[in-house]
Amino acid sequence: GFRFASTTASLKTETEVDTSENEIVAPDFTNRNPRNLEQLALARKERGWKTTWPKREFWHRLRFERTQHYVEAFVERSNGDVVVSASTREWAIKRHLYSPKGVAACKNLGRVMAQRCLEAGINFVNFKAIIPWEHRCDSAMLMAFLCIYLCLCLLNKIQEFEKAMEEGGVVLREPRRIYR
After folding, report:
1. Is position 109 within any domain?
2. Which of 85, 66, 67 has the alpha carbon at shortest distance from 125?
3. Using CA atoms, how far apart are residues 76 and 83, in angstroms rounded to an integer?
4. What is the pLDDT of residues 42-84, one digit of tens each?
5. Full domain range(s) for residue 71
6. What is the mean pLDDT of the chain?
């Protein structure tokens, strides 16, 4: 058979791509990320709620609630929609805990909640712990004792939850709004 071999080496020149059109910015830009203004601290916060409790001047609020048997945490928007939630009622969390309402449960719930917040793209939240203050009692002294007892018992749980959230990478205060 015949065999053909080329002995000349020639470099093919590639056609150069015109990159000057990449520098042109479109005059009409559509932002498809609705939370982009929140992350840039340019989005509006509802400011007409100064006299109400709890305040509603936030983009995302982290609520930490303790019920009789469980501990729950929610991230909600200012309109009341729950965006992310975690609870020791969930079997995936409860099966790893000795008690679903102790300090260790609060710490682990903070870890899980921080991971879920970061997965949802929520890096900044306004933190509010809901503490049950209402107790029906005739004696003022007993009422004061109950309030102090509840405060001391819940304070350690709240601090561990807060610490776990911050160690998970979530900032527990929102940036100040930039006015333009």
Report:
1. yes
2. 85
3. 5
4. 677 777 666 766 677 788 899 998 888 999 999 998 888 899 9
5. 51-130+157-168
6. 77
